[in-house]
Design brief:
The chain contains twelve helices and two strands, in the order αααααββααααααα. By secondary structure, the protein is mostly helical. It has one domain.
Length: 307
């Protein structure tokens, strides 16, 4: 299988993960984004099974940095799940996807002192324009969709986390960084217990594990499938990037395929289960989303450079 086919499957799995997340959050099978984020952080502790394959002790300062990186990551996931719960997945995903490279761009400019070519400046402009275009609800009078601010916050936090992780990878192996940052993510999720309403939701959910109802068992199964899809998509993406014939630039630029998949699946599921998937299907909204995705695609293609 060539790198292009692997990339397509990777983004298809990731889009299915987004759709399942949307269903679990919108159907109230998971009562709150904080609960969903807590379980995601807990699932990340499965990284501990890789301890025999590269884990090692590091200095106290390094531990603090990596835990902070994990905390920032889980805060980004909380913002992402909150945005998905409030709005259409086909709007949230492109906005987050556009915000990540924009944030990375400015982080590199400010902290790494990197210089950027004219095409990358044009790419940044395209990302901003495309992200804003898909965010506007023209029917309501040029206002941003519900969850827009949380989508922006998710993109910024996930970009910061990704930049921090990349710096860690320069000085340590993948397994060790992955384990420490996932422990940081779980530490971040434990902070949720300090918020009374969130603590009540999480504790109540944990108590239900003693005698899970049939619906809760199904929700748990769907959650596990969602995590498997997300993990498989991420692994396939890394595999495609690692192939000698693949271009890192193209693999990352093809993230727009994920937006298209989410858009198509969102419309399909909105016809099947409109009470959970509130995707607008009028021709103006569809045209707006398609045009915005094309602009974002151009922006991503311009801003990513060959490494």
């Amino acid at each position: 299988m060539n790198w292009l086919a692997i990339t397509f499957f990777a983004y298809f799995f990731l889009s299915l993960e987004i759709i399942l997340d949307k269903f679990l959050l919108s159907s109230r099978r998971v009562s709150h984004p904080a609960l969903y984020t807590f379980y995601s952080a807990a699932a990340g502790l499965f990284a501990l099974v890789f301890i025999p394959f590269g884990f090692h002790a590091i200095g106290y300062i390094e531990i603090i940095y990596r835990l902070i990186g994990g905390i920032i990551f889980i805060c980004g996931m909380l913002a992402l799940f909150s945005a998905i719960a409030e709005s259409e997945a086909s709007r949230v995903t492109p906005v987050v996807g556009a915000t990540v490279p924009i944030t990375t761009f400015f982080l590199s400019l400010i902290f790494l002192g990197e210089n950027f070519a004219q095409k990358e400046i044009l790419g940044l402009i395209a990302l901003i324009f495309g992200g804003l275009l898909i965010s506007l609800d023209f029917e309501q009078g040029f206002i941003f969709f519900p969850g827009f601010k949380k989508s922006i916050a998710a993109g910024i936090l996930l970009a910061i986390a990704a930049t921090i992780f990349k710096e860690f990878y320069k000085h340590d192996n993948f397994i060790n960084v992955y384990i420490w940052t996932r422990m940081g993510a779980f530490c971040g999720a434990l902070v949720f217990f300090l918020i009374p309403s969130w603590r009540k939701i999480i504790v109540s959910s944990l108590l239900k594990f003693k005698k899970p109802k049939k619906e809760n068992q199904k929700s748990g199964a769907l959650y596990i499938i969602s995590r498997i899809l997300g993990g498989s998509g991420s692994i396939l993406k890394e595999k495609a990037t690692s192939l000698a014939t693949a271009s890192v630039t193209l693999v990352n630029a093809l993230v727009s395929i994920e937006y298209v998949f989410v858009f198509i699946l969102g419309i399909g599921f909105s016809l099947w289960m409109p009470e959970f998937f509130e995707e607008k299907k009028d021709w103006k909204t569809v045209a707006q989303k398609i045009f915005s995705i094309l602009i974002i695609t151009v922006g991503i293609a311009l801003i990513f450079r060959h490494e």
